[in-house]
Amino acid sequence: MIRRITLIEPKNDHLHIFSKFELPRLGGILLATILRDKGYQTESLFMQAQEVWAHGLNADLVGISTITATATAAYAIADECRRKGIPVVMGGPHVSFLPEEALAHADFCVVGEGETSFPLLVEALNGDASLDKVPGLAWKEGGVIRRNPAAAPIENLDSLPFPDFSLLQMAGKSKLGSQGIGRVTVPVQTSRGCPYDCTFCSVTGMFGHRYRHRSTSNIVSELARYDPRKQMIFFYDDNFTANPVKTKELLREMIRLQLGFRWSTQVRTDVARDPELLDLLAKAGCATLFIGFESVDPTALKEMNKRQTVEDIRLAIRAIRARGIHVHGMFVFGFDADTPATARATVDFALAEKIDSAQFLVLTPLPGSAFYTQMIAEGRLIDRAWDTYDAHHVKFLPRGFTPWELQRAQIRAHTRFYSPRHVAARLLRGRLPGFLIGLYAGVLNRRWQREERDYLRVLRLLRLPRPSPAGI
What CATH architecture applies to the domain 4-147? Predict the structure, then answer.
């Protein structure tokens, strides 16, 4: 009989750009909350594998949610749990796209959104339902993999409970939402899905193209649980302003209620086409906007199906900064149109436009994305060492670079953008957050190179054929 359930989201062992600012995804915490409300004893862990064992497991069932970069750690945890006689369920984006791989390590795999499927699976394992009735379930029976039809996307996101962060254990840190020292960042998700279809992104494969959103009243009820003197908010939406009408409604209510939070989120450049929306973002307490600029090369933007122009990027930077909001630009190197010259031009652009902070990462073929499918078809994957599918390591054969040249372009981009001279200039411009992030990012870039010296040495010596130019 299953009564005690542990939900685990493993952490990647490799240093990465957000190592200092790690936040758990909400899936495991939501499942722990849902199952707790159904009478089970639950906990949610956000830890590295060795921290999980130090914490100890007292569970009848373990659920592990993983993205691609944490799949290696997730499989190691799953294997050890099964050796201990604990059945394992796996879910999350990576295994939703590769369930056959996951079932070499787990007893069951839940494909897609799990808030409906996972509780039904627990009921089935307790003899109160049939495995055949669990949507999105994959499992082995007599050595043969069986798969049920996918679960329908959750239409009414208000039906989900607010995540109970008291169920979350983070090694060495206070619980999110607790009254610790200083302000902690609390993740809140107001929507699922994305109407866009960038070739390198797996979001639409997981949550669909149709944009689903919570009601304004439901969101502000969750925000009311937190204290702006002790907590900041990070809205987890892949595109917070995808529905400007709904976004404005929420922002006006946050302003009317004088919630007083400082918060951050992700948007596209099209936010700058709506001055009223920008004004409301600033007035409602938006501190930082993370924006996927990706590239300043028109050919690359077209290649990735980004549906934005370089002028859109420039307008967004200037309009957002004019309202006192910190701009964090996200760029990617490695598209077929990219070369060392376009990588240098991207950094030139970021410096010339005075972006407050930026990340320059390596294009990564994530399972579930069109780009991954293309790399498989063209035989351009270097390996499937999933723990290095973190946008810091080169995992495919680019056209405009050797693998080493692409890696070097990424390292040099951070070195230039976060040089002491440019970091100091942000302080002189009065952009204190950009200055502080710059100090951290410069140290991180040097530390990453030290920790990855063996990988870099091998990559420098790697001799792989460069793919033929597109169309040949």
Answer: 3-Layer(aba) Sandwich (3.40)
